[in-house]
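input
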Amino acid sequence: MKNILFSLLIALNLVSCSNNDDNNQNQNPYLAILPVNINLNLNLPEYSALKFPGNSIIYTNQGIRGIVIYCVTENQYIASELSDPNHIPNSCSRMIVEGIIASCPCEDGNSYDIITGQFTPQTNDKYPMVQYRAVRNGDIVNIFN
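output
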């Protein structure tokens, strides 16, 4: 009896575990979450700016409208979707990055802090930028979801 009870507790524990703690990440009705898997080699000239805090690059080959990758510290990176999270993707919804602000060229002129992903100025009625995981392993920065 103890073995059965122990086995049931182990099975229940395994079923309740998840390798992804972001199950409810996409509550945004405007943007679908596309699979992202990028490996940036910081030894390559096009990504070498990411070795230094305060620099960012735009990667256009994945995401909805591209991804901005920002170096916070030598080991901390932020990766965010460049499609305005408060628009259905359209011809003007790709944001432009200047410093740490991403701005939408559409008529409403939405802008976001790329470090926090939050709408600027902060409001509770606007969706934040979709952010991806960014991890540095040696000279490789992995961006994924």
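quick obs: The domain at 38-144 is CATH 2.102.10.10 (Rieske Iron-sulfur Protein).
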